[in-house]
């Protein structure tokens, strides 16, 4: 199993440059994403090389390495940027996705993070239910086990008891 560097996990942060928000559109969203203060942007990517050499983004297809592309745009509110490793002009490996909603940039969680979060929520709910059920369970050597509910006591009802089977030996 590969180890995960916590510095690479940027799921809990967001970034925004409010000066850009009113003018964001599909033609300038990659420029917005490449701002120096954006913690999601890798300065060693091919987009920087293209920018420094004043080439068009079409030249990215001929390069090998990390690049950012605009994957989807739903103007004026949603843009999805993909970070990918280009192996050849026709082969890329997705590394991460980022979404921009109303100018705020977030890293999209990977499938493992989503499943882990859902499983943790389910286990927490089950543990809470088990702890509450156990708080009503009572035991006495002469009576055995029984359930003790405060509502029954208030109504004057007897509590239900049950005995554990005796060990036969």
TrEMBL record:
Keywords annotated in UniProt: Activator, Nucleus, Transcription, Transcription regulation
Species of provenance: Sinocyclocheilus anshuiensis
Family, per entry: Belongs to the Mediator complex subunit 6 family.
Subunit structure: Component of the Mediator complex.
Compartments, as annotated in UniProt: Nucleus
Keyword Transcription regulation: yes
Domain of life: Eukaryota
Taxonomic lineage: Eukaryota, Metazoa, Chordata, Craniata, Vertebrata
Principal location: nucleus
Job of this protein: Component of the Mediator complex, a coactivator involved in the regulated transcription of nearly all RNA polymerase II-dependent genes. Mediator functions as a bridge to convey information from gene-specific regulatory proteins to the basal RNA polymerase II transcription machinery. Mediator is recruited to promoters by direct interactions with regulatory proteins and serves as a scaffold for the assembly of a functional preinitiation complex with RNA polymerase II and the general transcription factors.
Name this polypeptide is given: Mediator of RNA polymerase II transcription subunit 6
InterPro entries: Mediator_Med6, Mediator_Med6_sf
Assigned GO CC terms: mediator complex; nucleoplasm
Biological process, per Gene Ontology: regulation of transcription by RNA polymerase II
Molecular function via GO: transcription coregulator activity
PANTHER family cross-referenced by the UniProt entry: MED-6-RELATED
């Amino acid at each position: 199993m590969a180890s995960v560097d916590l510095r690479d996990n940027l799921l809990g942060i967001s970034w925004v440059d409010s000066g850009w928000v009113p003018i964001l559109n599909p033609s300038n969203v990659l420029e917005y994403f490449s701002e120096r203060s954006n913690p999601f942007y890798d300065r060693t990517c091919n987009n920087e090389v293209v920018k420094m050499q004043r080439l068009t983004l079409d030249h990215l297809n001929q390069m090998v390495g990390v690049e950012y592309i605009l994957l989807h745009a739903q103007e004026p509110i949603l843009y999805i940027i993909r970070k990918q490793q280009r192996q050849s002009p026709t082969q890329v490996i997705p590394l991460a996705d980022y979404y921009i909603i109303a100018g705020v940039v977030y890293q999209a969680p990977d499938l493992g993070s989503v499943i882990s979060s859902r499983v943790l929520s389910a286990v927490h709910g089950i543990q809470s239910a088990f702890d509450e059920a156990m708080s009503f369970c009572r035991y006495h050597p002469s009576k055995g086990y029984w359930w003790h509910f405060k509502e029954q006591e208030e109504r004057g009802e007897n509590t239900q008891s049950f005995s554990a089977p005796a060990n036969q030996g």
